[in-house]
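Researcher: Let's walk through a ligand-bound prediction step by step. First, I give you the protein sequence. Second, the SMILES string for fe (ii) ion. Third, you return the three-dimensional complex as structure tokens. Ready?
Model: Ready.
Researcher: Here are steps one and two:
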Amino acid sequence: MLNRQKDMTSPNQRLAPSPDGQISREQLIFLLNEDLAREYQSIISYVVYSQVLKGAAYMTIAKELEKHAKEELDHALTIAKQIDYLGGTPTVAPKAVKMSTDDEELLRLDLSNENETVRNYRERVVQCEALGEYAMAEQIRDILVAEQEHQIDLATALGKDVAEVAASDELA
Ligand SMILES: [Fe+2]
Ligand SMILES: [Fe+2]
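Model: Step three, the predicted complex:
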């Protein structure tokens, strides 16, 4: 039985990882819990946004967002499993979900979250590999593929190019 107290996050575990991805297992648990909180956030936002989009032009993407909600739940389960495997305790708290009465703004909020998620999972793959956790890196790569598809769906619905929106988000 692994020590479940190990994931108690202290301030030094919140330090930014080095560029080569070398982090401690405790830091990885902390960062995966941030990923899990983002997955919960995306489940909530896709469940709600898919229902409140009202414009006739957005009915196709609203259906697509319902599918995203289910995929985000799979991601949350995968990430929670990795946290448990590392001896941590999966968080119960989602990141804050923003709301808007404007359809386009809702899609922009979703896209911005996906950009942030993709950025984080790219780092996580490198960090897992630096720790020799190759199977975990593979699982996160699979999630990354789905998140990039979410980015494309949202960018397309907004009539934008993914590279363009991801880059502008990175500058923000
Ligand atoms: Fe996800
Ligand atoms: Fe996603």
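Researcher: And what stands out?
Model: The pocket of fe (ii) ion (ligand 1) is lined by residues 39, 42, 72, 75, 143, 147 (CB under 6 Å). The two ends are 43 Å apart (CA to CA).
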